[in-house]
User: Which sequence fits this backbone?
């Protein structure tokens, strides 16, 4: 009788307000349920997993600078449920085939007083929930200025969290591991000067990963961030999260014409860590591929003139300018002769691309208040770009372009078309972009709507000219690579270069990334450093890992553009380089074999019937027993391994490594030895 009464009241309206109006929708496997409800005219949602509340009633809606708030006074005007099940194939990726299966609910709610309508679309997958807002043109507004998005996630318990601060300009932080109640996003010391902007020390950025008090894994992120600012999340004392959008310089959060749609707000939910790692939900929430011809898109390994600038062997600029860190080394790196050396090495070692930073004029003005110092088409006198492209082509190698903007997005936009057209005319198919510095126009932020629009314009212009993009100092990855598969990789985390000029990345860093930043999408971490102390150039800095750990990163940290980042002379004659020569960068399947966030992880990936395994650990030495259940049961394989030995230690003996071969059987068990800061890399050949 009670259920019947609730059903009868579900659309009862009194004095213009819904007393109770609710719709439920469950995941295809029935384990996750989302409830949408109006309480006294205000919209809320709730999420349950196997009947237990994960997210309690949490607010939805908007406030505007120029329009009535959409937070109360609503009635339901329409609702529609759908089910969808399809399998699609990636152009490239962690796995070849992606199943997209969900149940959907679309709600339209109308505000009685203003007559405005707000659409909310929900999709429930077997591994999570997602929703987005639609503000329709039918509301009749020519200008929309959003002052606040009211989205909440009410968790109600003190879960374990892995988080970085909600910096409006950078994601380059080490992840903190704390209880929810201990979140305090004090900025890392490197960013305490300058005009970095962390307005709320309780705000964190996404992806935000949690392990609940009941052992469930949660990940909060967004998908299809197109014309909207980055969403950070404010951690509140009642164990709830509140959406905090990165503003324009005038304080407005979102600017739109007659309509807008938000990115998807995503919560992944899994009883096992593997469920987060193997999720495709963020990709599935993006539109299908828009590029008709993708024949020019090719994952590849690359090397080049890069690490040597970071360790001080060479500089980005041939011209000395007082106070510019871009040219404080004794020699210019981007010369024809130096690049030729890298091309020769790449040709002999199964490496397709060569990146050269500092090839163009303008670096001599780095850090100076000089408008438009990069034109992106003028090589320095010491870099014969046309000769090098011809020479590389004859060797089966190609140059990767580089567009560092110094943060001058407005200057880059003015020159963008010409810059991409220039690369296209030379046959260059990939470009690394960079935005190291404060954004121009002054006052805008790397993660605000202005820059989100800019990053998308760069991506679309690159696609127009058949160019792949590797973005540094980027907006975070939210799955755009499904729609524009020329969006190959991006930075968006503390990468290898931090080891060259700071305290460096602690060993646990690479055991956290696969379950936080890595779930958002490919990471250009630039692994493969063999000279781990580089004492010839610097005395204090070092890479905090063993050599086997560096090899394992080619499997552990996914990117379709993987750099062999060290100097040529450090690879030549080293038998450990054989793993880099062989390891693919495109995969048909990817699995988490074992792992604990911040402690260790073991990842297996498959390409053309061969499997590759990578394992890394934190500062603790350990042995991990795993089952080779990703291999064909009972079949015999040759395991070519690159492992830590008893002496291997990231501080004492980082270069100690054991290289060998042994027979293993699919389904059997092996023990992986990991030294402190150590790793294990293996190839399995049937």
Assistant:
């Amino acid at each position: 009788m009670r259920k019947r009464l609730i059903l009868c009241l579900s659309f009862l309206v009194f004095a213009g307000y819904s007393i109770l109006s609710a719709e439920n929708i469950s995941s295809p496997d029935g384990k996750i349920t989302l409830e949408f409800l109006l309480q006294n005219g205000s919209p809320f949602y709730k999420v349950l997993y196997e009947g237990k509340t994960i997210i309690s009633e949490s607010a939805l809606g908007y406030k505007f600078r120029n329009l009535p708030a959409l937070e109360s006074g609503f009635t339901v005007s329409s609702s529609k449920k759908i089910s969808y099940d399809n399998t699609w194939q990636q152009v490239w990726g962690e796995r070849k085939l992606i199943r997209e299966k969900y149940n959907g609910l679309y709600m339209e709610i109308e505000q009685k007083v203003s007559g405005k309508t707000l659409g909310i679309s929900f999709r429930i997958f077997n591994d999570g929930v997602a929703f987005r807002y639609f503000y329709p043109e039918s509301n009749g507004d020519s200008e929309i200025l959003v002052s606040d998005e009211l989205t909440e996630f009410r968790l109600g318990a003190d879960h374990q969290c892995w988080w970085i601060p909600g910096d409006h300009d950078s994601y380059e932080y080490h992840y903190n591991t704390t209880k929810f109640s201990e979140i305090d996003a004090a900025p890392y010391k490197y960013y305490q000067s300058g005009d970095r902007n962390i307005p709320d020390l309780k705000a964190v950025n996404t992806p935000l990963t949690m392990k609940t008090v009941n052992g469930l894994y949660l990940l909060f992120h967004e998908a299809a961030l197109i014309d909207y600012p980055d969403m950070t999340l404010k951690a509140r004392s009642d164990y709830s999260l509140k959406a905090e959008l990165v503003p324009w310089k005038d304080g407005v959060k979102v600017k739109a014409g007659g309509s807008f749609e938000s990115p998807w707000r995503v919560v992944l939910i899994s009883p096992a860590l593997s469920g987060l790692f193997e999720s495709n939900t963020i990709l599935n929430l993006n539109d299908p591929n828009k590029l008709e011809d993708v024949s020019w898109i090719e994952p590849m390994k690359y090397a080049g003139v890069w690490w040597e600038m970071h360790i001080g062997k060479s500089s980005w600029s041939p011209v000395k300018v007082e106070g510019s860190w871009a040219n404080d080394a004794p020699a210019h790196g981007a010369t024809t002769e130096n690049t030729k050396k890298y091309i020769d090495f790449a040709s002999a070692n199964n490496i397709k691309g060569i990146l050269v930073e500092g090839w163009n004029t303008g670096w001599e003005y780095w850090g100076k208040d000089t408008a438009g110092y990069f034109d992106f088409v003028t090589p320095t006198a010491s870099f014969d770009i046309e000769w090098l492209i011809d020479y590389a082509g004859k060797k089966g190698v190609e140059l990767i372009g580089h567009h560092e903007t110094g943060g001058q997005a407005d200057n880059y936009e003015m020159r963008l078309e010409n810059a991409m057209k220039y690369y296209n005319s030379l046959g260059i198919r990939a470009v690394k972009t960079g935005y190291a510095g404060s954004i121009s126009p002054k006052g805008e932020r790397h993660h605000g709507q202005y820059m989100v629009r800019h990053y998308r314009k760069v991506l679309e212009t690159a696609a127009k000219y058949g160019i792949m993009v590797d973005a540094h100092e980027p907006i975070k990855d939210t799955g755009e690579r499904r729609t524009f598969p020329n969006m190959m990789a991006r930075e968006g985390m503390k990468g290898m270069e931090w080891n060259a000029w700071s305290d460096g990345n602690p060993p646990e860093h690479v055991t956290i990334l696969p379950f936080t930043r890595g779930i958002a999408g490919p990471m250009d971490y630039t692994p493969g450093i063999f000279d781990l102390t580089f004492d010839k150039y610097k005395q204090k800095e070092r890479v905090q890992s063993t050599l086997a750990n560096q090899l394992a990163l080619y499997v552990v940290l996914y990117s379709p553009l993987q750099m062999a980042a060290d100097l040529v002379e450090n690879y030549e004659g080293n038998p450990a380089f054989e793993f880099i020569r062989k390891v693919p960068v495109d995969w048909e399947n990817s699995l988490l074999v074992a792992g604990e966030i911040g402690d260790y992880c073991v990842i297996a990936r498959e390409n053309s019937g061969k499997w590759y395994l990578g394992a890394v650990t934190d500062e603790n030495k350990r042995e991990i027993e795993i089952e080779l259940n990703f291999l064909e049961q009972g079949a015999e394989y040759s395991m070519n391994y690159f492992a830590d030995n008893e002496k291997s230690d990231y501080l004492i003996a980082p270069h100690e490594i054991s290289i060998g071969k042994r027979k293993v059987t699919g389904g059997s068990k092996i023990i992986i030895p990991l030294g402190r800061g150590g790793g294990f890399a293996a190839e399995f050949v049937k």
Notes: Confidence is low (pLDDT under 50) at residues 1-19, 188-195.
